[in-house]
Design brief:
The structure holds two protein chains of two kinds.
Chain A: H1 2-13, H2 32-39, E1 45-47, E2 52-54, E3 58-59, E4 65-70, E5 77-84, E6 91-97, E7 103-108, E8 114-122, E9 127-136, H3 146-149, H4 152-156, E10 160-165, E11 175-180, E12 197-204, E13 209-215, E14 224-228, E15 239-245, E16 250-255
Parallel strand pairs in A: 1-9, 3-9
Antiparallel strand pairs in A: 2-4, 4-7, 5-6, 5-8, 6-13, 7-14, 8-9, 10-11, 11-14, 12-13, 12-15, 15-16
Chain B: H1 2-20, H2 22-27, E1 37-40, E2 43-46, E3 64-69, E4 72-76, H3 82-93, E5 100-104, H4 110-113, E6 124-126, H5 128-149, E7 163-164, E8 168-172, E9 175-182, E10 189-194, E11 199-207, H6 219-230, E12 236-241, H7 249-270, H8 275-279, H9 285-288, H10 295-313
Parallel strand pairs in B: 4-5, 5-6, 6-7, 11-12
Antiparallel strand pairs in B: 1-2, 2-3, 3-4, 8-9, 9-10, 10-11
The complex binds zinc ion.
Chain lengths: 257, 320
């Protein structure tokens, strides 16, 4: 199609230009320029296929759109930011990989079809960006959580469950999956204030961070995170999950295999 | 940039129209081209396409049926829209001038009941659970169908069946109909077995050559219902979607698919797969070649995988 050719042309024209000219967004998003100014002002952003966002082309459930971010093709990733351009709340989450790979699986609420993009900052300060369009019938952000409608969640708020895999079918390293009971209300449903997990630290038994996650409102209710450790790291016996939501409620639990 | 995309979309749109000759279909005023086929004495089936809802098919992806009896016509499911219901009624009138005695709605999915407005309100009947489900979700289903099929839906509104059905035998105009209260495809599924002709109408408990849909599925209950249907001495089997058969092949195919789907969800969750990895999994040949694959498999992952994950991450009662 025409725009693919234009994108290639664009790539050729960019040779020898300063990085900030790399504004021709491969996702062809109407709001990328605004987002770039808002979240990456004065910083270098390059589009880089080493950063992958895996998501269904067409999402069945706008309240639970699965997203897999993978920046493990880059060395020395310090931080990854995930944004959904056309969502009423653009910021989905950020994470800083510690001993875990720069890779994270989770689910989000989407209000309409939108690009979902991940930017990974390497040690030189450059943001490497990849992404994909997700189509959805939408409505995911203005619906109340099911938790808000039930009495059960208050008793179980911030309850953590999870497991550690040693031979995940998905890869050679160890894998940790963590689920936390939380309504994750966006504040956009009438009469229900924003209520969401803001800060989460996943650490090994000796306190070393596997990953630090900063959540925002669009992360789905009862968040479920998938973390991968590098190949060969097989001594993870248990992990500790600590953190808090925006109302100051604490999270603190151990996950064992 | 958006403009460029819009131009490409427009070009594609008009090219498609030229290729498919849609203007003639549209000027034919949303004609579903319904063709009732006789499958047994007094018994007619209108088979829908093996597709998902689209602007091109107007929602005609479903099988509806009717039985002409001495006391009037019994209709099984009314189709996806008011227009469909009207055209179904017109198709019935080519075969029989008798009044509509009963419209039996098998379950609350939109392609099965949104033609209700074309029929006498008092004749429309469903099991109580289906009536409740249509009351609760019917309006949203109808809105969604407007989005998926457009003007085919003109004038369509969700109309709740007036008459609650009791399971058991319904004698009508020389036909002995057995009404079976089953479940699994949705919370309430009606099976209709005509003991007089040996025709079994399975509703959406039975799919054939088209992947089953699972937005409200409970697989264990669905399998139990399939066993129940398989035990009946039927001569002709009418699936909710897919061709009519004279054997139990659709029951076996639906059962095998559900067993595989259930096991695939459990295995994936036990292996620690993330949902994006589940979506990317290749399908085995037996199920890959069904119509609307891999789309239905992927939709089913969204419907069924979260519960399988939860069972693995959070063993029942472990954290109370
Ligand atoms: Zn159905």
């Amino acid at each position: 199609m025409g725009w693919t050719i234009l994108r290639h042309l664009g790539a050729w024209l960019l040779i020898g230009w300063p990085a900030w000219v790399l504004a021709a967004d491969p996702l062809d998003s109407p709001s990328w320029e605004d987002l770039r100014k808002r979240y990456f002002a004065g910083q270098t952003v390059v589009f880089d296929e080493a950063v992958q966002v895996n998501a269904p082309v067409s999402a069945e459930d706008p309240l639970n759109v699965p997203i897999g971010v993978d920046a493990s093709g880059l060395a020395g990733v310090q931080e990854v930011r995930v944004l959904a351009d056309l969502n009423p709340i653009v910021e989905i989450l950020s994470f800083q990989p510690g001993r875990a790979q720069p890779r994270l699986g989770f689910r989000v609420k989407l209000q309409q079809s939108t690009p979902v993009r991940a930017a990974a900052r390497t040690a030189d300060g450059v943001w490497h960006m990849g992404g994909t369009w997700v189509n959805t019938t939408g409505g995911g952000c203005t619906l109340p959580s099911t938790g808000s409608a039930s009495a059960d969640w208050q008793r179980r708020l911030n309850e953590v469950s999870g497991r550690i895999w040693h031979n995940a079918a998905a890869g050679p390293g160890q894998r940790v999956r963590i689920r936390i009971i939380h309504p994750m209300d966006t504040g956009l449903a009438a009469g229900i204030p924003a209520f969401f997990i803001q800060d989460l630290l996943v650490a090994d038994a000796s306190g070393h961070a596997l990953m630090h996650i900063q959540g925002h409102e669009p992360v789905s209710e009862n968040p479920l995170f998938t973390l991968d450790l590098p190949e060969g790291q097989t001594n993870l016996a248990k992990v500790r999950v600590t953190g808090r939501d925006n109302n100051g409620n604490r999270i603190d639990a151990w996950v064992t295999p | 940039m958006k403009t460029r995309l819009a131009i490409v979309t427009h070009l594609l749109f008009w090219t498609l129209i030229l290729i498919l000759g849609l203007p003639s279909a549209w000027s034919a005023e949303f004609d579903y081209q319904l063709q009732p086929k006789a499958v047994a004495p007094d018994t007619w089936v209108l088979q829908g396409r093996l597709e998902d809802f689209s602007f091109a098919n107007g929602g005609n992806i479903v099988n509806t049926a009717f039985i002409t009896t001495a006391d009037g016509v019994v209709v099984i499911d009314s189709g996806p829209s008011l227009r469909y219901g009207q055209q179904l009624l017109a198709a019935i009138r080519k075969v029989s001038a008798a009044p509509i005695a009963r419209v039996l709605i098998t379950h609350h999915h939109p392609d099965h009941f949104l033609g209700n407005q074309a029929f006498p309100p008092a004749s429309i009947a469903a099991l109580p659970g289906t009536i409740q489900d249509i009351n609760r979700e019917g309006k949203a289903f109808a809105e969604n169908m407007y989005r998926l099929t457009g003007d085919w839906m003109a004038g369509t509104e969700a109309m709740t069946p007036a008459a609650p059905l009791a399971p058991g035998t319904l004698e009508i105009g020389g036909h002995r109909l057995e009404l079976l209260a089953l479940a699994g495809h949705t919370g309430t599924d009606l099976g209709v077995f005509d003991r007089t002709t040996g025709v079994l109408f399975g509703g959406d408990l039975v799919f054939y050559q088209r992947a089953p849909t699972t937005p409200h599925a409970r697989i264990p209950a669905w399998l139990t219902s399939l066993n129940h249907l398989a035990a009946l001495p039927f001569q002709v089997l009418v699936p909710g979607h897919g061709p009519v058969t004279r054997d139990g092949a659709p029951l076996r195919q639906t059962r095998d698919y559900l067993l595989w789907l259930d096991q695939t969800m459990r295995d994936g969750a036990a292996a620690g797969l993330d949902m994006t990895e589940m979506l990317a999994r290749p399908l085995p040949p037996a199920f890959r070649d069904l119509a609307v694959q891999p789309e239905e498999y992927r939709r089913s992952v969204a419907h069924l995988f979260p519960a399988a994950e939860q069972a693995v991450l959070e063993p029942a009662g472990a954290r109370r």
